[in-house]
Input
Amino acid sequence: MKNQFELNLNYRGKIICQRYFEDHNFKKDDVEFEIAINIIRSVTVMIKNHLKSETLKHLYSKYNSTSTNEDTSKTRDEDHITVVLLFNNRVVSTSMIQIDDFPARIRYSIDIRPIIPTLIAKIRKHLKKA
Output
């Protein structure tokens, strides 16, 4: 059987990023609970850090010391994205990231493509420990 992993990012029930990858060194039929928790924690932290970095870039590019305009756009509902890790079409673990505190420009145009290779490398590193 092929060991296929899938990493999804969902926003309001819609997939905004989906990546399939294999780990040929992973020979087990299932991912252990402790490994799954470590994977989803590290992936979530990496995505949060990426969003923070993008927010800082956005805010610094829009900063004007003479203006008092602020990007105070907030949604009334709690906005979140869901990170899902699947193994052979079975959910291994999920995590939610609150995105209320990020500016609207970041919140509604989430782009994690630059960090996907790093995310997959981190997942594979955790799987080696299994």
